[in-house]
Amino acid sequence: MTQQTTSWASGRASAVPDSIFTRMNQALAQARAAGLDIIDLSIGSSDQPPPPQALDALRAATHDPATYRYPLHRDTAPLREAAARYLSRRFGVQLDPEHEILPLIGAQEGLAHLLLAVTDPGDTLLLPDPCYPPYYGAAAVAGLTVEPLPLREQHGYLPQLEDVPAGLNARALLLNYPNNPTSAVADLSFFEQVATWCRQRGTLLIHDHPYAELTYGDYRAPSALQAGTEGVVELHSLSKTHHMGGFRVGFAAGDRSALSALARVKGAIDFHAYLGIQAAAATALDLPERLGREAARRFEERRDALVPALRDHGWTVQLPQASMYVWGRPPGLTDSLDYAVRAAAQTGVAVAPGRAFGMGGEGYLRFALVQPPELLLRAADQLARLPAGSPLPNL
Ligand SMILES: Cc1ncc(COP(=O)(O)O)c(C=O)c1O
Questions:
Q1: Which DSSP string corresponds to 143-191?
Q2: What GO MF terms are annotated (predicted)?
Q3: What CATH fold (topology level) applies to the domain 52-286?
Q4: For the chain, does the N or the C end have fewer beta carbons within 10 angstroms?
Q5: Is the model's pTM score more than 0.90?
Q6: Nearest CA to ligand 1 atom 13
Q7: CATH fold of 16-49+290-384, please?
């Protein structure tokens, strides 16, 4: 057999950055080999079950032969209409389900295709730093020039629009509140200000909103669509709000021209999610808000366990009002990747290094609240015993 040497990777594929999580996985494999118990808090995949009503809807659909064919646009009406009802009930925004809502195979798919639909190679995308890492890959696939917008602790991790270089002609600005990784939240006046700023410059405001319902106490996250739909697209996901990450379903809502462009691109690429998954999502979106609040409370209890424990161990950490993450700094941290790799390899506790989210995340670590409170407390204790600055394991 001859060794294959030709690389078939396009410039586009090669431009997608490597994931720091590969390094983390190696460190975890080392911990497993050493017989350590693993507490994985590095990935924000909900451990809660989807609503039983959604599972029932999916089960019923699998017995209905009418769901077995390719789903056409008209077949997506029940999900689009359920999404419109949800947006109206929850945020008081009235959208036309025919032209202003489009089902997605997850917000991540939606974002990558939206960028392809509304930009041309070489266009500029304003991207927060730190941010959800796949944003960098999606921008690279679309051939965009990324202009970083620093999110700083002293500004509540909100971008300062006056930082944007004067005269910069950005095609789109991407935001995400409640925020991954910082857990920061933004109020409606912020979205109104940003939407006006974007409209004045001909910049599309894209708001990625997967944590819309993962909020604590009396806090409720607003929607960017409350600032108007013109020039605004919001990406919703059932992954976190309804614990349906594996189902790959969400929806885009907002500016009809942008959504029409997205529908054209998606028409060349996919045929929508299976109708049973769409039925499950529509059922979930129509459920009373009270059920979502109960699931969110579980994450709130975890936050209330972890944050004081970390503070007792000298961490600097704020009490998040939303999201499924805790973002903080341990005493004496110099290099987040070094810390996270050592922690995973030597204690079995995996947390995400801030640097994985962009250089603006350096100096911080992110905990995903995806384990019960007792394991979070154990993780905090084990991290406190991590020897300071011991050499990196040989990986
Ligand atoms: C900010 C953000 N956007 C999108 C996603 C992925 O959403 P989906 O599962 O709908 O693709 C995540 C998942 O962690 C996220 O944190």
A1: TPEEEEEE--GGGTT---GGGSPTT--EEEEEE-SS-TTT-----HHHH
A2: transaminase activity
A3: Aspartate Aminotransferase; domain 2 (3.40.640)
A4: N
A5: yes
A6: 44
A7: Aspartate Aminotransferase, domain 1 (3.90.1150)
